[in-house]
Every structure is written in structure tokens, then in C-alpha cells.
Design the sequence.
């Protein structure tokens, strides 16, 4: 015979945690792997997931977060498309008593009480890794090196960090110049368009492309080939993410290096959600560990890559 109280307790214990997630969109291979990782990890951990995608439009994303507040989910997590504009809606979440976890990209917000933790990469460090690779390649040659930069989404944390970290390092060599810089929104098609513009402007003078993600680097590779130059040879290409397609390009000699940005953050997020619901204290920042991959070792590094 079950006591009514005991039955209620069991019900409480078995009640699933409901997590609302607002994703950036589906702009890149990285993002696809990231969304998959979140969905799989939620399933594995028995967390009910309400997954919304903002199609890279900040105004959509604010609406999405608002709708998750209205649905009274237990926890809200999101990867902010851009860093600014979050104060109002995060205050609404706080008033509703819903804790917020920031994942992947960050926010520019003074009031740190508006979120529990930020799980994600160190984007400036990724930029520094890209910069160090270039310094190494240039060595002590005194020749001028012209770099063009294809940036990610304007106002997003990865764009800001990857730019700053890279500049910080290449400054050490006065022969390296960033001669052109434009946003390609982390998309292959736009990366190609931006590269076409750069080539039409000063094609023959470009030595290096620094693309803020692999998809845009792949677009740039297409543009360079159509222009009649050899990507990876006539023009060196550095990018960030290290998705499968980047390894294929490295193995084909068309991409020279890719800095790792690990999209498999789902398990880390679910752990944070569970800890939070169990009343544990979370660190304010959880940084993902990452490396760099070079064309010379792409073949060996590629094994076991599943995104
Ligand atoms: O590098 C890019 C994606 O926010 C780290 O967003 C992420 C970036 C990633 O579109 O491919």
C-alpha cells in the first residue's frame, strides 16, 4: 500500500527537467554538429528539450527566449547571435524565476546576476592560435605579408575574439598587414562572395586568407579557384572550427590549417542543467579545451572525426 505522500514524492523525482534552448540558426557545419550534440545529450540525460532556432536574426532570438519564459521551462539556455541587447529579456527571465545558461557565444552584460554560467570556447585564444600559426610560417622573412580577413557575424563573440586574438599576435611581426576585412556571417555562400570582392580588389597581392570559420574558408577556396589561383598554395588559408570538410580541404592541399572549436557541448550543458536543478553552485565560466590541426598531419588527425 502506497502512502499518498510517497506517491507524490515519486512523481516529483520522476518529473522531467524541461530545458528551453534558443539556437543561433543553421549557418554552418559547426552549428549543425552543435545542435545535434544538444539534442542527443538531452535525450541521453532524460531532459525534455524545447529547441528553437532563430535563423541568425537577433530579433527572432529575443522572441524565442520570451516564448520560453512564457512556457515556464525550468531552465533557459541559448547561444546569443550577437553580444548586445540582452538586458531586458534576461531581466524578464529573472523576474519569472527561470535560470539562464549562456552557451557558446557570450553576451556583453554588466549585470552578471542575469545568468548562471557561460559555457563555451575561448575565442580570443582561437584567434591567437591562428596568429601563432601565421607567425611560425612567416618566420624571420622580411617580405611583406598581406592578409585578408573574412569575419563572422558582426557583433558576435566569436568574431570579436577571433579578430582581437589574431591581431594581438600578428602585431609582433611588422611585415604582416591585414589589408581587407569584411563580415561573411559564418556562411559558405557569403564567404565566397566576400572573397570574390577581395580578389577583384587586389587579387594578385593577397598572400593569406584568415577566415573566422571553415564554411567561409570553403567558400573562399571556391572563389580563389574560379579566379584562377591555387588555394593553399598561391594564397594560404587559415580558418577555425575543424569540421570534417575542413580536413578534406587540408588533405587536398587547399586549406593550410584549422583551429579547433569544439561543437560537442551538449553533455557539458546537460550536466550544468542537472547540477543547477540539484541546487549545486556552478562556476561563472566553463571553458572548452581545444587544439589546432595542420595540413601536414591532417590525414592522421582526421581519423575518428564525426562532425
Ligand atoms: O565557429 C561558426 C558558427 O559560435 C563558435 O558559429 C560558434 C561559431 C562557429 O557559425 O562556424
Sequence:
Amino acid at each position: 500500500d502506497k502512502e499518498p505522500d510517497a506517491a507524490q514524492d515519486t512523481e516529483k523525482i520522476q518529473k522531467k527537467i524541461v530545458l528551453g534552448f534558443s539556437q543561433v540558426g543553421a549557418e554552418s557545419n559547426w552549428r549543425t554538429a552543435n545542435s545535434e550534440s544538444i539534442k542527443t545529450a538531452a535525450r541521453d540525460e532524460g531532459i525534455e528539450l524545447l529547441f528553437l532556432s532563430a535563423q541568425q536574426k537577433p530579433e527572432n532570438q529575443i522572441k524565442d527566449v520570451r516564448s520560453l519564459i512564457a512556457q515556464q521551462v525550468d531552465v533557459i539556455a541559448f547561444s546569443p547571435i550577437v553580444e548586445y541587447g540582452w538586458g531586458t529579456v534576461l531581466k524578464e527571465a529573472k523576474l519569472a524565476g527561470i535560470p539562464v545558461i549562456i552557451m557558446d557565444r557570450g553576451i556583453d552584460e554588466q549585470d552578471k546576476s542575469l545568468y548562471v554560467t557561460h559555457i563555451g570556447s575561448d575565442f580570443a585564444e582561437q584567434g591567437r592560435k591562428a596568429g601563432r600559426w601565421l607567425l611560425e610560417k612567416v618566420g624571420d622573412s622580411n617580405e611583406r605579408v598581406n592578409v585578408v580577413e573574412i569575419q563572422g557575424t558582426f557583433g558576435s563573440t566569436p568574431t570579436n575574439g577571433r579578430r582581437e586574438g589574431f591581431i594581438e599576435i600578428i602585431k609582433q611581426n611588422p611585415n604582416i598587414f591585414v589589408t581587407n576585412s569584411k563580415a561573411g556571417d559564418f556562411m559558405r555562400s557569403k564567404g565566397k562572395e566576400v572573397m570574390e570582392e577581395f580578389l577583384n580588389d587586389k587579387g594578385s597581392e593577397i598572400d593569406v586568407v584568415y577566415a573566422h570559420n571553415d564554411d567561409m574558408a570553403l567558400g573562399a577556396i571556391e572563389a580563389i579557384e574560379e579566379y584562377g589561383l591555387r588555394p593553399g598554395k598561391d594564397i594560404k588559408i587559415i580558418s577555425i572550427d575543424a569540421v570534417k570538410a575542413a580536413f578534406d580541404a587540408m588533405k587536398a592541399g587547399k586549406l593550410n590549417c584549422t583551429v579547433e572549436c569544439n561543437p560537442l557541448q551538449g553533455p557539458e550543458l546537460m550536466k550544468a542543467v542537472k547540477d543547477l536543478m540539484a541546487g549545486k553552485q556552478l562556476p561563472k565560466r566553463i571553458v572548452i579545451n581545444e587544439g589546432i590541426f595542420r595540413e601536414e598531419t591532417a590525414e592522421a588527425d582526421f581519423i575518428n572525426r564525426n562532425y
Q: What stands out?
A: The mean pLDDT is 95. The longest strand covers residues 176-183.
